[in-house]
Amino acid sequence: MTDFRIEDLAATIAARAKTLPETSYTASLLGMGPAYCARKFGEESVEAIVAAVEGDSAALISESADVVFHLMVMLQVCGCGFEHVMKELERRSGVSGLEEKAFRERE
């Protein structure tokens, strides 16, 4: 088991946002703006889906890491802190997924 946490990734991405794009892949992604980061997230998501459908566990793990990374980059560039996602998950905790979905559909 690893001691690495998703909060560690969020902190690294936030720190890289303050660096030069020439010195950091993350900074270069952030510099491309929200639309580009959203497209990258979408591309990585599709690659993870393909790996799952093909039953390629190693590729699914690798692509899932890419999905999580690019999700975090997209959140950063859009000014949505990861802590907000965690608060939303906490809000949903203890609520049936079916109930939560029905509530969202009524809004």
The secondary structure category is mainly alpha
From the alpha-carbon coordinates, what is the Rg to the nearest angstrom?
Answer: 16 Å
- Overall mean pLDDT score? 93
Order of helices and strands: HHHHHH
CATH overall fold name: Helix Hairpins
**What about the largest sheet?**
none
Number of domains: 1
Helix content: over 70%
Q: What is the overall silhouette?
A: globular
Supply the CATH architecture: Orthogonal Bundle
* CATH top-level class: Mainly Alpha
Can you tell me the residue ranges where pLDDT is under 50 for at least 5 consecutive residues?
Answer: none
CATH superfamily: MazG-like
Structure in words:
The protein has a single domain, classed as MazG-like (Helix Hairpins, Orthogonal Bundle), CATH 1.10.287. The protein has about 110 residues and is mainly α. The longest helix has 21 residues, at about 35-55. It starts with 5 loop residues before the first helix and ends with a helix. It is built from six helices and no strands.
Describe what is shown at a glance:
The chain has 107 residues and is mainly alpha-helical.
Jot down its keywords:
Helix Hairpins; 107 residues; mainly alpha; globular; 6 helices
